[in-house]
Design brief:
The complex is a heterodimer of chains A (about 180) and B (about 425). With about 180 residues, chain A is an all-alpha fold. Chain A has six helices and no strands. The longest helix of chain A is centred in the first third of the chain and has 35 residues. Chain B contains 21 helices and no strands. Classes of the chains: A mainly alpha (about 180), B mainly alpha (about 425).
């Protein structure tokens, strides 16, 4: 039941993140092409920045599901599987607690921003662009909970999808 | 203030020891300090500062370069580059080691990530080296150290991060990375030759002009990528971010239309790779924006600069201290985390000592290049060991010579700034 929900959650999140990456590339490349043709897109910079923030927050939830965020598992690995459980849970409480707080604060931000819009596209409300704060935080909490059973088995962070061509367990880190 | 900083550091170490992701540990510590000093009404500001931290235009280059690199990996570009490098230098004793280095130098011009580099090239070259009689620890050491060239020769993701953190020019940093990157590559080739003569490693293949021409023609479209990426950026036609966007389009055209080797599943995987790797780095950037705003309020970077300038104003002594700091940090921290944590704090010191931020950026990049090779946290070395199925400490015994080469170039670049900086002076005046 949980594993099938996790699979659906991952698929939906991946599809959304792929759409964001595609849009981000299209906006940046489109801006160059239009500028060279003498028609600068005044909104392109602002929208690209919003898309980057969205890739950051939604991509972070996906990275949490894969336990791909940069951490230091070295100390926990020294404990026996049973001995490390309370420490892993304590760490999880901090992470989940922080993002629950951010989800709540994000709703407060959503309330504060009523009536504000982007500078270049005055029809686009800031409430929509900043909605990523509560939604992204809530998704992070879900991803963290769904990947918890595996984290309890081994604290070692996993490679993101990208380095899957490397044999498993090859790297402690996920990024450049 | 000292008491606050001490408990912040204590909490940060405790959270990191519990394997809380570093980005989240930083955010918890900074948010906690802000709430304690300014009250809970500061919380909406915490969320907004983190959001704004993830919206710099220069940082947009990161997902795009990662995405472009992933497309290149998926479309046989690495295979063609290896074939060309093999025809070019494979006839020299220890030729396959040189092929690794030459291919890494080509690959570095398209990809900004050393882990991506070692993963793409190592899966082909490590088995080939073992098959022809190279010890596996030597194969892993060469692949690992050569991959570090990816972060020195532009485009480079650590340089983009540094430029944003130091409010410096990405393009100038890219220019300053060219000479050190080529120097590291050439010195590593010399070292490989010395190893090959000493241990009688084999020659990969006989030299043939016809083969060189054929492999060049097959790889020629791959060479178009660095021309487009670096030519348009250095030529002033586009910004680094726009150049990254063009790199994606060119990679799609070369891989999908010309080579016809790009499948939808590869493209999907490449987009996910770009997004997840970007999110991991950008969450760190967002958290550091929060921590940075708090530390700036306390004037910590300025006080640190004043304290060190009170001890010495000699820029070479200051650079030596910073080199030591980054070399130690590189053993324990991922390069992105080290840049994000340390650079904003030391920049006032760099300005006060009269050090060019672009010059310092190259020093930081080379330091963290070494950090990728030094256990316990050594992303590139660990990936190379896994690919070559070699034991980390055995590889490190050989790798120490190659790391020595990077260290030598680091010392040259630290104390003879004109070595990395002359292309910058050439383009921008000095």
């Amino acid at each position: 039941m949980i594993s099938s929900f996790k699979r659906v959650f991952q698929r939906v999140l991946e599809a959304w993140v792929i759409l964001l990456m595609f849009s981000l590339t299209a906006v940046v490349v489109g801006a160059v092409v239009f500028r060279k043709m003498g028609h600068s897109l005044g909104w392109a910079d602002e929208i690209a920045r919003v898309l980057l923030a969205w890739v950051t927050y939604y991509g972070s939830a996906l990275a949490a599901l894969k336990r791909a965020h940069i951490g230091f598992p070295g100390l926990l690995e020294r404990f026996s599987p049973r001995g490390r459980v309370p420490l892993v849970l304590l760490g999880e409480i901090f992470v989940i607690g922080f993002f629950l707080l951010m989800a709540w604060v994000g709703m407060e931000v959503y309330r504060i921003l009523e009536g504000d819009t982007l500078v270049s596209l005055t029809w686009l409300p800031l409430r929509l662009t900043q909605s990523v704060i509560p939604v992204g935080a809530a998704l992070f909490v879900m991803a963290q909970l769904l990947s918890l059973p595996e984290a309890l088995r081994t604290p070692r962070i996993r490679e993101p999808e990208t380095h899957s061509q490397v044999p498993p367990g090859s790297s402690e880190e996920a990024t450049p | 203030m000292t008491g606050t900083i001490i408990w912040m550091l204590f909490l940060l170490f405790a959270l990191v020891a519990l394997n809380v992701p570093i980005a989240i540990a930083l955010a918890i510590v900074a948010a906690g300090a802000m709430v304690l000093t300014q009250g809970p009404e500061v919380l909406p500001n915490v969320a907004l500062v983190m959001y704004d931290g993830a919206t710099s235009f220069s940082l947009l280059a990161i997902p795009l370069f990662i995405f472009a690199g992933a497309i290149m990996n998926a479309t046989g570009i690495s295979r063609r580059l290896i074939a060309f490098a093999s025809a070019l230098v494979g006839f020299i004793r220890g030729g396959l080691a040189m092929v690794s280095i030459v291919t890494s130098m080509f690959f570095a011009e398209m990809s900004g990530s050393a882990v991506a580099d070692v993963a793409a090239l190592g899966t082909i070259l490590a088995p080939a080296m073992k098959k022809t009689g190279y010890p596996r620890q030597f194969a892993a050491a060469v692949l690992s150290s050569a991959a570090t060239i990816a972060v020195i020769i532009p485009p480079s993701i650590p340089m983009i991060l540094y430029a944003v953190m130091a409010e410096s020019s990405v393009v100038k940093l890219f220019l300053a990375g060219v000479v050190p990157g080529v120097l590291v590559g050439l010195l590593m080739m010399l070292l490989s030759y010395w190893f090959a003569r000493r241990h009688n490693y084999p020659v990969a293949e006989a030299f043939e002009w016809r083969k060189l021409w054929r492999t060049f023609k097959e790889a020629s479209w791959s060479f178009l990528l660095p021309v487009v990426i670096l030519g348009s950026i250095f030529g002033g036609l586009v910004t680094a971010t726009e150049g990254a966007g063009l790199a994606v389009v060119t990679a799609l055209i070369v891989g999908g239309v010309i080579y016809r080797e790009l499948r939808w599943s590869d493209l999907r995987k490449a987009m996910l790779e770009g997004a997840v790797s970007t999110a991991v780095v950008m969450l760190l950037v967002a958290s550091s924006a929060l921590l940075g705003s708090y530390l700036t309020e306390l004037r910590v970077p300025q006080k640190l600069a004043e304290a060190i300038m009170g001890i010495t104003e000699n820029r070479y002594v200051i650079l030596a201290l910073l080199n030591l700091c980054f070399l130690v940090l590189g053993c324990f921290l991922h390069s992105a985390a080290a840049i994000i944590l340390v650079v904003p704090i030391v920049m006032p010191l760099i300005h006060a000592a009269g050090i060019d931020p672009v010059h310092f950026g190259i020093v930081v990049t080379l330091n963290l290049g070494i950090g990728q090779q030094t256990p316990p946290v050594a992303s590139v070395l660990i990936t190379a060991c896994s690919v070559a199925q070699a034991e980390i400490w055995e590889v490190t015994k050989v790798n120490v010579y190659f790391v020595g080469v990077i260290f030598l170039v680091l010392m040259l670049c630290t104390y003879v700034p004109s070595i990395p900086m002359w292309p910058v002076y050439l383009f921008y005046g000095g």
